[in-house]
Amino acid sequence: MVREISAGGVVVRKKDGEWWMAAIELPLAPAAETDAPKPAARTRAKATLCLPKGLVDPGEKALEAALREVREETGITAALVTKLADTKYVYVRSWGDGERVFKIVSFYLLRYESGRIDNITEEMRVEVAHAKWVRLEDAPKLLAYRGEKQMARKALEYARAHDEV
Questions:
Q1: Nearest Cα to 120, choosing from 75, 71, 77?
Q2: CATH code of the domain containing 104
Q3: Is 142 a domain residue?
Q4: Angstrom distance (rounded) from CA 28 to CA 40
Q5: Mean pLDDT across the stretch 8-25?
Q6: Could you tell me how far CA 143 lies from the centroid of its own chain?
Q7: Residue 18 included in any domain
Q8: pLDDT tier at 132 (50, 70, 90 boundaries)?
Q9: What is the pTM of this model?
Q10: Residue 156: domain span
């Protein structure tokens, strides 16, 4: 089984007395180009909302990767508040070799610093349909993945207990 190490961020900001969180929508699965039988790959009919995250590059620290991924996938810069937790799961690659992968993702609570959400490169649109602010309180219901829902809950708890975030 292959191992992957990734990092991501829950970027928060307080606006008009409410906490908001940066999220990304994945592109919808492309339509089939032929009438050939389709493999049993999952296709998405509606947008998948998730947290910005990605692989930790060789020689890079997890926090550096999280900050880089946030910048690349959302267009905003952020600063560390605290580490939230690591999530661990196994998935099967839906591309290439179809191998099982054991994945560890380190998530950090980050404070928005600058930039305009969704100001990303055209090349990044392959990975991110668009980035947007969502209410942090709503995020656990909106995010697609269980581990990320848990990170949003942890971020909300932290923000409520530490107003200086």
A1: 75
A2: 3.90.79.10
A3: yes
A4: 16
A5: 96
A6: 9
A7: yes
A8: very high
A9: 0.88
A10: 2-30+45-161
Residue 42 neighbours by CB distance under 10 Å: 6
Residue 49: CB partners within 8 Å, gap ≥ 6?
A: 23, 24, 25, 134, 142, 143, 144
Phi-psi region of 157 (alpha: psi -120 to 50; beta: other; left: phi over 0): alpha
Name the domain count of the chain. 1
Strand (E) or helix (H) holding 150: helix 146-161
H/E segment holding residue 145: none
Using 50, 70 and 90 to split pLDDT, how confident is the model at 45?
A: low
Residue 72 lies in a domain: yes
Task: Give, in order, the Cα–Cα distances in Å from 14 to each of 19, 56, 70, 135, 136.
Answer: 4, 29, 18, 10, 10
Please report the beta strands in the chain, taking only residues with DSSP state E, as ranges in sequence order.
2-15, 18-26, 48-50, 53-55, 76-92, 100-115, 130-135
Q: Is residue 37 part of a domain?
A: no
